[in-house]
Design goal:
This protein is an alpha/beta fold. It has 13 helices and 12 strands. The strands form 3 sheets. It has a 7-stranded parallel β-sheet, with helices on both faces. Strands 7-9-11 form a 3-stranded mixed β-sheet. A two-stranded parallel sheet has the order 8-12. The structure holds nicotinamide-adenine-dinucleotide (NAD) and 2'deoxy-thymidine-5'-diphospho-alpha-D-glucose.
């Protein structure tokens, strides 16, 4: 398999590339990444320096038609997995425009280049957030209506619908996957778990939005990546597949578990102003992916969280590298000026 992965210097993309190259000695991967604030080339630096010629990094934008068409043709790429996106809900509230550029126009450009190149398979990596918010009962199925509540989730839902249109209109063999909250190594420390880890290690207060009772379903990143691998190899074109971790937690319970692991006091928790439009609960029904793709989340949440914390502790250099000027500037701006 000769694969184009986009956004491979981000959290899930980097884990996916590592896992796929390890599991498939005959695969080669071209990683197209713009290196926004969330992209870190260091996450895959060892692959660039490795002895084998199975990984190529290309810095560029998924919105660039000539670049994408050239890569697909020049490298004889057979399939695309699109991770590239603006991904942080709070940033989308501050400034939605980049989310339309990359998540909608970029995804459309990729699909267009892929259909012209007659690419054999396209996986559009989407999210449970396209379904909106759940009450205390039930779980989203693939047939649940799309009801996104943030500019981020609206932009992802738009790309999902574009994928449907490219399948129906042009026959692009596209598969859409929707997954719940991932955690694990290489996650940028603006997201809940690495942010709270960093703050707790420094004995800083941990800002929990609202009453802390919003519920997220957590999946270890490798389990998501294995689901994506099976969607790529076995997913039916035109279909949507839900993935989840079967590990629902309130944010408060999760933060408490993290503090316990770190041996830090719960007095560090500070309840702060809620996120506007904050979805109350997500939960995924992933029976379809279980039946058709053999998907099942493998790692238990407590083990996964402990493994993740061990990784962040052991990879202080990586954490230091992402705490660049741009990151600090953003965080200063955010915490100084909440909407
Ligand atoms: P991330 O923010 O860590 O990484 C995004 C990557 O995309 C970065 O490397 C960035 O440089 C790159 N990128 C952004 N704009 C680009 C552009 N125009 N051209 C090329 N590259 C660009 O994201 P993540 O958390 O790894 O998420 C990856 C994908 O998975 C996203 O599509 C996201 O919507 C989806 N997803 C994420 C989660 C989660 O919990 N993190 C859950 C479900 C789905
Ligand atoms: O559900 C999948 C989605 O998960 C992905 O599509 C998104 O790309 C990814 O960012 C993530 O979105 P969330 O908004 O759920 O993740 P985040 O880590 O930003 O927040 C998780 C929960 O924690 C959410 O309810 C908001 C809350 N939170 C977050 C931060 C950063 C806090 O209480 N305090 C915080 O400082």
């Amino acid at each position: 398999m000769r694969l184009l992965v986009t956004g491979g210097c981000g959290f899930i993309g980097a884990n996916f590339i590592r896992l796929m190259l390890a599991r498939h000695p005959d695969w080669t991967i071209v990683n197209l990444d713009k290196l926004t604030y969330a992209g870190n080339r260091l996450s895959l630096a060892d692959l660039e320096q490795g002895p084998e010629d199975r990984y190529l990094f290309v810095r560029g934008d998924i919105c660039d038609p000539d670049l994408v068409a050239g890569l697909l043709a020049d490298h004889g790429l057979e399939a695309v997995v699109n991770f590239a996106a603006e991904t942080h809900v709070d940033r989308s509230i501050n400034d939605p425009a980049p989310f339309i550029g990359t998540n909608v126009q970029g995804a459309q450009n990729l699909m267009d280049c892929a259909r012209r190149a007659k690419t054999a398979r396209f996986v559009q990596v989407s999210t449970d957030e396209v379904y909106g918010s759940l009450g205390p009962e039930g779980a989203f199925t693939e047939d649940s209506p799309l009801a996104p509540n943030s500019p981020y989730s609206a932009s992802k839902a738009a790309a999902d619908l574009m994928a449907r249109a490219y399948f129906k209109t042009y026959g692009l063999p596209v598969v859409v996957t929707r997954c719940s909250n991932n955690y694990g190594p290489y996650q940028f420390p603006e997201k809940l778990i690495p942010l709270m880890f960093l703050k707790a290690c420094r004995d800083q207060t941990l800002p929990v939005y609202g009453d802390g009772l919003n519920v997220r379903d957590w999946i270890y990143v490798d389990d998501h990546c294995l689901g994506l691998e099976s969607a790529l190899l076995k997913g039916r074109p035109g279909e949507v597949y839900n993935f989840g971790g079967a590990a629902e937690k309130t944010n408060l319970d999760l933060v408490r578990a993290l503090l316990a692991l770190l041996g830090k006091p719960e007095s560090l928790i500070e309840f702060v102003q809620d996120r506007p439009g904050h979805d109350r609960r997500y939960a995924m029904n992933f029976e379809k992916a279980g039946k058709e793709l053999g998907f099942a989340p493998g790692l238990d949440f407590d083990q996964g969280l402990a493994r993740t914390i061990d990784w962040y502790r052991a990879n202080q250099a990586w954490l230091d590298s992402v705490q660049s000027g741009a990151y600090r500037k953003f965080m200063d701006h955010w915490y100084g000026d909440r909407p």
